[in-house]
Prior knowledge:
Blueprint lengths: L6 H20 L7 H17 L3 H20 L5 H33 L15 H34 L2 H36 L1 E3 L4 H15 L3 E6 L4 E3 H22 L3 H6 L6 E10 L2 E8 L6 H10 L34 H10 L3 E7 L3 E9 L8
Helix pairs in contact: 1-2, 1-4, 1-7, 2-3, 3-4, 5-6, 7-8, 8-11
Amino acid sequence: MKQDPLRYFRAEAQELTGQLEAGLLAYEKHPEVLPELFRFAHTLKGGARVVRLGLMADLAHAMEDVLAHHREAGTQLSKQEVTELLGIVDAVRVELSRASASNRDEVAADTRTPGAQLDFETVRIALSEMDALAAGAHESESLFSALRAELGELGALRRGHTTSELADQIAERERRFTTLSDSLELSLRRLSDKASVLRLLDASMAFPELERAAHDAAALTGKQVSFTARGGNVKLDGHVLSPLRGALLHLVRNAVAHGVESPFERSQRGKPEAGHVEVLVERRGPRIAFVVSDDGGGIDLDAVRRAAAAQGLATGDGDALELIFHPGLSTSSSVTDLSGRGVGLDAVRTAVQALKGRVEVSSKPGAGTRFELLVPVSLSSLRA
């Protein structure tokens, strides 16, 4: 069986590009991260050289040169340089994807590994969690040994005692056997729970891409937007987080393009010129809530009704907010990179429903909009 030469580098490169992106997005408020950014770029360059990805190494080297210049001169990156460096990070990811796809093509026939991989299919596990799993396995093994010993003693009793003595001894062994069985069942349940936890990801893995989406959308629309994300320590299955990625990206971009007003409009309304978009993740029993909210102008329900009427949809006394999920509905008067094609909130609802979840939306004129995606923690089979 052929080995994947990028197996370990891929995880390292994904982490480094994420750190570079997060650092660049935070740079304006925290310019002290520049030395760290330099180290990330330097490490990425070295790793790419080792696995002979020359173009990726050259891209990392270009980042390293820019960062080294400012680090040595004691100067700060300009906004244009930050944007260009983010573009290089994107190019690195493209090269990593190409290299990974090429390698999968080479080994697919031998390993039977599917060509398409989920964005969040790899997890990093804390040693303490692995130790807990190992301890649980040892405990279960010990209990199995004790059960086997009890079964051996039962056999000896059957061969070496009278009927009355045997009944008393078996009754005692039965109590001990039941106690051991209960302990073993509890140990195996704990072991199963620990194993399930190991395959869960922190929701924060999605945050850098969402922040980048808000940053890029603001640059495209000429708006000022601050982005915050909370609840990153909430854990969920990567098979849930991966398909939810597109829905969250759309909602964040939508919040910037349609929700947050221009700086002039906000100042006219007595608001700070910079709008705010927030992603909040909360655990609610067996489900996870992803809440995307903004402090913009809210959904223009009259415009929604007009757009729906233009498509021949009924716009009676029902909830106008439901109309925004209709396929093809758009209130934009022109087509841009962010809006106007009528592809959006219907896809969000479809993605969430495919996960057996639901979408709720609320909006207040002049105060903003809030979308709540409620999805299960895991798609794996659960004990019932």
